[in-house]
Amino acid sequence: MNYIDLIRQSEDLVTAGMSACQGCGAELCLRRVLQVAGRNTILSIPPGCMAGAGVVGWNFDNGLKIPVHIPLLDNTASFLSGVTNMYQRKNRPDVNIIAFAGDGATADCGFQSLSGAAERGEKLLYICYDNEGYMNTGFQRSSTSSKGSRTSTTPVGKVQDGKSQNQKYMPLIMAMHNVEYVATASPSNMKDMVDKVTKGIQASKKGFAYIHIFSPCPTGWGHETDQTIEVARKAVKSNFFPLFEVEQGKWKLLDNKNPIPVSDLLNLLRKFSHLSPDDIAQIQELVDKRMDLLRKLSAA
Amino acid sequence: MNTNQNRIVAISGNKSAAMGAALSRPDLIAAYPITPQSSVVESLAQMIAQGDLNSTMIQVESEHSAMSVVQGAAVAGGRTFTATSAQGLALMYEPYFRMSTLRLPMVMAIATREMTSPETVWSGQQDAVSVRDAGWIQVYVENNQEILDMIIQGYKIAEHPDVLLPVNVCYDGFYLSHLTERVEIPHQPAVDDFLGVYHADHVSLDPDTPMAVDPLTSGEILWRYRKGHLDAMQKALQVIEQTDDAFEQVFGRRYGGVIDTYKMDDADFVIVTMGATTGTAREAVDVARSLGMKIGLLKVRFLRPFPDKKIREILSGKQGFVVIDKNVCFGWNTGVLYMEIKAAISELGHPISSMPAIGGLGGADISVDQLVTCIQVLVKQGSQQPGQLDTYWFQ
Q1: Chain A residue at shortest CA distance from B29
Q2: What is the pLDDT of residue B2?
Q3: What would the 3-class secondary structure string for chain B be?
Q4: Nearest alpha carbon to residue A30 among A16, A45, A40
């Protein structure tokens, strides 16, 4: 089915009353993921923006029309390992077992359980919505915050200049776990995202699948709420967030032959507004090097 | 059923725990090694590899994940088992607290061990007593037979509709985990019959019956969960007694429910124990009586729920007691069990002499002779002075 028809015809499984910020990238992606997954799904959303927005339920009201649980910040993948094993045991492999977790729950304290579940090949789809920080608790840095990011724990001051470390690049780390499926996706490329979520769910019937979503955060990153898709698009077009997938060891990279300069993206975001031309040149170099590595991996 | 047909074997405490778990037929077992528990999950892995046990085993990367995996399986309707010790228990504290507060029944064996620092891997009860306020039922056992029997009873208690709480079966690391004793292995059909099939619908993740498990919960509602949890703990006191009775009818062994006593009727003084020290204390009571001391033994089996009424009844007519703690209660200059008993007797209405005693830390032995000496100190000082005596340290 055409992806536009699929989205038009599929039920929105998020109930009224969810309270994500205006222009939230993660909310849009969550709704689309659930439209692809459908009702025969169990979802885990650890503490973070989407849980805080009430999607996991609030008092006696449910936030989703499907079974949902807020696991601990650091055990989403191991909790779902138990769920999926019981469903295999009950001979109900048709039930989709999906995690929708932020970058803190994925790359920081949840990393160990995620790596363990991937290594064991647990039959589930783990989706990380990466807004590059702990946005729900007030924009603190995480290991996926890009170098140079101004956050509430990497402020810009007289002697410090935002985050000094490089980003931990989760998609490649997960690809190196040799799992069934790994992909990156962006809300700017919705057909691509819908295809990848569909593949990810199929792959989760055989083993572990991981999708890393670039999730612009107008509140934390400092861009206008109607610029979310533009920010995401520029991240893809500048190779700041490359789109690729690894399907049973087969690599496929969306290669921009004529990428836009990374400054076109950075200039949109207040979290980078303190950067000097030299800083931006350094980030450009990091982006180019990563793209070269991905090209080599995809060519192999 | 004819209990004479049961298989009699000589096995370690860890093997006994594994066999108790296997007889309870868990759907899913999480395994992660830690001294002195490791051979529990090794034995279970071996049974599964041989095709003797049809459980799903997940080899996790930490105890935190061990408790998380069984939590996921329990929310999906499964009966689960795992085992741990000391640092492993500390690492799993976060999902451990959540297991009980989600009201998910399961059984976890704890081969109890001293906590680091100083760096140690040897016996003690500091690990298990430190999590006494995390909402689990905790039973402390005396010998290898009781390990196996209480794992089976543990599922019966945990899954009772009035309880719905997870159970720790705690046994002294090395002293029981690595000690070989005679154990009777019940027949599988009898255990199947005794336990029945676990069916969970109070909390579950299933697309056929969509539920938000653990939505964000405000203070106006949260207290109801805690009150319900406390109520279930109190109901468990009854369920524990009923389960002990039912177990005796089928398997021919009973343990006395929440507590057990030895030579208590005419005793003036009491030695209170919890765990494997109880066996040594039975000998010490015999020796002390031969020396003319009227001493009895109180074995506290359940630390949670705490059997305060029963303990009060036992101690009400006595002159004094000593509590042997293989742990410390930081800030009170006593052990944990002593503080619990002190709270239980606070309503007696008359003074009674009591002596906190601490020993067996980090695997140190507590001998019969040492216990007899301790009893002598209790009888001498307790005859002269009511109230709390100086803390006695086994050196």
Answers
A1: A82
A2: 47
A3: CCHHHCEEEEEEHHHHHHHHHHHCCCCEEEECCCCCCHHHHHHHHHHHHCCCCCCEEEECCCHHHHHHHHHHHHHCCCCEEEEECHHHHHHCHHHHHHHHHCCCCCEEEEEECCCCCCCCCCCCCHHHHHCCCCCCEEEECCCHHHHHHHHHHHHHHHCCCCCCCCEEEEEECCCCCCCEEEEEECCHHHHHHHHCCCCCCCCCCCCCCCCEECCECCHHHHHHHHHHHHHHHHHHHHHHHHHHHHHHHHHCCCCCCCEEEECCCCCCEEEEECCCHHHHHHHHHHHHHHCCCCEEEEEECEEECCCHHHHHHHHCCCCEEEEEECCCECCCCECHHHHHHHHHHHHCCCCCEEEEEECCHHHCCCCHHHHHHHHHHHHHHHHHCCCECCCEECC
A4: A45
Q: Which domain holds residue A41?
A: 3-299
Q: Which of A41, A50, A86, A119 would best serve as a mutation to test chain B binding (most B beta carbons within 10 A)?
A: A86
pLDDT of the residue at A243: 98
User: Which region holds residue A108: left if phi is over 0, alpha if psi is between -120 and 50, else beta?
Assistant: alpha
Q: What is the CATH number of the domain that holds A238?
A: 3.40.50.970
- Measure in Å the smallest separation between the Cα of B80 and chain A Cα atoms: 10
Work out how many domains chain A is built from and give that number.
Answer: 1
The whole-angstrom separation of Cα B184 and Cα B91 is: 34
The CATH class given to the B259-393 domain equals alpha beta
Nearest CB to A89 within list B27, B30, B60: B27
pLDDT tens digits, one per residue of A125-176: 999 999 999 999 999 999 999 999 999 999 999 999 999 999 999 999 999 9
Query: B342 is written with which tokens?
Result: 């002190």
CATH class of B3-251: alpha beta
Burial A188-227 (b: 16+ CB within 10 A, else e): bbbebbbbbbebbbebbbebbbbbbbbbbbbbbbebeeeb
Inter-residue contact B100 to B70 (CB < 8 Å): no
Span(s) in chain B for CATH 3.40.50.970: 3-251
**In a 3-state reduction of DSSP, which class is residue A251?**
strand
Residue B280's CB: how many other CB atoms inside 10 A? 21
pLDDT in tens, A193-233: 999 999 999 999 999 999 999 999 999 999 999 999 999 99
8 Å CB contact of A59 and B71 = no
Which of these, A176, A46, A206, A180, lies nearest to B68 by C-alpha position? A46
Q: Tokens standing for B360?
A: 């067996």
Alpha carbon B171 to chain centroid distance? 7
Stretch(es) of chain B classified as CATH 3.40.50.920? 259-393
CB contact under 8 A, B68 and A113: yes
The mean of the pLDDT values for chain A is 96
Across the interface, which of A56, A67, A113 has its CB nearest the CB of B216? A56
* ipTM > 0.85 for the complex: yes
**A/B interface, count of CB pairs below 8 Å:** 148
Query: Which three-class secondary structure state does DSSP give residue A43?
Result: strand
- pLDDT tens digits for B26-84? 999 999 999 999 999 999 999 999 999 999 999 999 999 999 999 999 999 999 999 99
CB neighbour list of residue B210: distance below 8 Å, 6 or more residues apart:
A39, A62, A64, A65, A66, A67
Are B394 and B361 in contact by the 8 Å Cβ rule? The answer is no
- Residue showing tokens 């719905």: B164
Question: With 0-12 CB in 10 A as exposed, 13-18 as middle and 19+ as buried, what is B177?
Answer: buried
**pLDDT(A290) > 60:** yes
